[in-house]
Fold:
Amino acid sequence: MEQKLIIYNTLSRKKELFEPLNPGYVGMYVCGPTVYGNAHLGHARPAITFDLLFRYLVHLGFKVRYVRNITDVGHLVADADEGEDKIAKKAELEKLEPMEVVQKYTNNYQWNMQMLNILPPSIEPRASGHIIEQIETVKKILNSGYAYESKGSVYFDVEKFARENEYGALSGRKVDDLLSNTRELEGQEEKRSPLDFAIWKKAQPGHIMRWPSPWSDGFPGWHLECTAMSTKYLGETFDIHGGGIDLIFPHHEAEIAQSKAANGKPSVRYWMHNNMITLNGQKMGKSLGNAISLNEFFTGSHPLLEKAYSPMTIRFFMLQAHYRSTLDFTNEALQAAEKGLARLMKAVGTLETLKISEKSTVDIAGLKEKCYAAMNDDLNSPIAIAHLFDGVRIINSINDGAEKINEAGCQELKSFFKSFIFDILGFKQEERKDEGGQEILSNIVDLLLNLRIEAKANKDWGTADKIRDELTKLGFEVKDTKDGFEWKLKK
Ligand code: ZN
Structure:
């Protein structure tokens, strides 16, 4: 089945038929995290959104090179040109080398992404590993005349660029409005205009992360890394650039201008942005006391959480909303998502035991088509999931004998239902946990008590007694019953 994918392009503000530059091949770049703290809910949304896109493109048969960077240098507080480096600040606080901070939180990010069953990108480049490429990009922009050196730093000349090129198309901002809304800030005397941003910044004494360059010992501006690394790995023009809508301005607007200045042409064909997450109707933030890390969600260890929510519950909850809609996290909504996901997964199990009939009374091809149509309509995962629940109803009715399915229909249902759930939406079976998350423990106790039954059958009374006595010592109450055993953990 030939699928035509339509995606909403933030730049044109229209849904467009996706046609890659090179047939069969997709180059895709997504702005990754700045690694100076534990991964939180806000990190999960772009990661899940573009994982869905990555998975779907691969499912459709495209060869995808997916690049998602790690920002480990040059991202200053308040996303501005002045102030401390976010990572250096954290290093000072935690008494670590900046690169230890970077490694620690990169590991944390990657672990959390793995928990959410997010596929690793094809390339995960670090800004600090691409200083040479960034210096080369600064040189190209200087050569084009859209940047100037000032006291060892190099600034992008936004006003000059905007006079000769289109600027602000992505965010819909105009230079005149921006100018009238900008306060003159301290430290901006180096710049010709307050709109200019640093592409190379001279390091102040005491600034740890610094590299030699033709202009000064310093470090690249935050916006520059994405231009340098996307060009390096995907070429001067590539298909898709993604990120959260909070990155549209200034970050992505700056990327567009930098690429045009450096390479003389627009870099990105389709811009895609996921919307934001709120928590109980509020914006999330450290100062609001509601920045919950993903690990806190997985373990339930945050005062705002009524219980732990598994990674797949979080994933399911996010995919139940369209990526361009805002999404509000509440305990109630998460618990509803948990039940929904359980129902979906139960149906996957039931699928394996369906009775085959001579004739089918159900329309599997129609259902499949609706699921693809939803995905092709700008990755409408909530509609696709709603259709999968129609599938759950069909599976349950066949199981109850109210509907019938033949061999071919059953094969088609199995293959499409499972490929949607596991390959495209990226869910995985999670261990069921009882109230206290004791599933693994229960399995081990059951295993030991089964070994005890075997020992008794072999008249190995010593081993049998030892297993019971040791479990009793550990606080388990073990009872022999007619069909085996019962046990509980004494409180
Ligand atoms: Zn970026």
Observations:
- The radius of gyration is 27 Å.
- The pocket of zinc ion is lined by residues 31, 226, 251 (CB under 6 Å).
